[in-house]
């Protein structure tokens, strides 16, 4: 289901999104691992879609192996334009679903990123809920590590020694995807997924929004209340107007086609 194998996709603002459920996403990753193929799974929420619309990050959607819709506005827009996505597929959920399946299939997981000690605590939670899961390593890199050739070489050495099947990369978009792509070149049989703050949530550092807020597409409000200084401009100035444009553009486009 990569850019050569995935077949039908839904196009939103130029980004090709796979119309698959979380279950299909997990099954696809495991099938590809069985075939000896790795890749990059990109979970696109509204903030990521906005950044993908900017020149400095626009190449990442095409470089990802599979893109899924991590945001209800994307699902709404897909329905409005007549090419419905089946559901929202979030990175915060996928770290759990993939860990569960990895435990069943004996797959190895590496956790990269988040703050000091966070990946270790998240890994302990994954193992607690999925006995037998193999967490084969964690790494909390320092700021600017991606430009430090010595650190990157050491990180690659540690990853190759750990031989993970899955790497959850919690560095924030777009850094996590760029780092993942760099590592994927040397670990072509490994699947990488940028997961943002998912490890913080799994470790209990940051509470996740109530399921009702998730279902109505308001999880961003929960995040905004948690970190107003850091997120206010990004969410209110960039993301909300972008989401409105995305949804309205989808509706207008369908109306024009129906005339």
In short:
The protein has 12 helices and 8 strands.
> Helicity level, as a percent range?
40-55%
* Residues in β-strands, percent: 5-15%
| Low-confidence region ranges | 1-5
Can you tell me the number of structural domains?
2
Number of helix segments? 12
Overall geometry: globular
Strand line-up in the sheet with most strands: 4-3-8-7-5-6
Distance between the termini: 34 Å
Number of strands: 8
Structural class by secondary-structure content = alpha/beta
- Helix-strand topology string: EEHEHHEHHEHEHEHEHHHH
The biggest beta sheet is recorded as: 6 strands, parallel
What is the rounded Rg?
A: 18 Å
Average predicted confidence as pLDDT: 94
Pfam family, one: Glyco_tran_WecG
Keywords: Glycosyltransferase, Transferase
Organism: Luteococcus japonicus
Protein name: N-acetylglucosaminyldiphosphoundecaprenol N-acetyl-beta-D-mannosaminyltransferase
